[in-house]
Amino acid sequence: MNGPGMREIIFGFPAIFACLIFLVSSCCGEVKLDVRNQKFFTVQDLKRIPEYFTGREFSGWKVYCRSNPQVRDGFYFVIKVGGKKQISSMISHWIVDWVTSADPMVKTQKVSIPDLKLFGKEVFVGLTGDHWADRSVKPLAWRLRLIDGQGATLGSSQSFLWSK
Hints:
Blueprint (H helix, E strand, L loop, with lengths): L5 H23 L3 E10 L1 H4 L2 H6 L7 E5 L7 E9 L8 E10 L6 E6 L9 E7 L10 E10 L4 E6 L6
Parallel strand pairs: 2-6
Antiparallel strand pairs: 1-3, 3-6, 4-5, 4-7, 7-8
């Protein structure tokens, strides 16, 4: 009765180790934020056909997070959130940092999240109302962070200029 040879043992350990690393990283991986668009949207840009019949905003497969939930006009970052769905209950809010040509000082705004089911949906993170009143202003540099209930960053994305 022969057991595994030295060759099987030597080649078996790296395979097992690689599987363990994959399992741990997939359970504890960081949330990925893919910023797909950034632009100023008006109420008319955001209206969908069902809203004309019901009078209520229709989100469909989108999640709208606004700095002023009562105002829809504003500058939005359109994001695809990827990662592990198990952490969605820990999500608390967005933090948006930005600099514009109109004001060289860094501004920071906390944006609440009305629907925690962000994964696999388009998320519109909007600076609305007084936070972004002028549609002609564009961001020079920006950073988005998804924050959990304890204040830790789950995922972030930033412009090239923000890193400089």
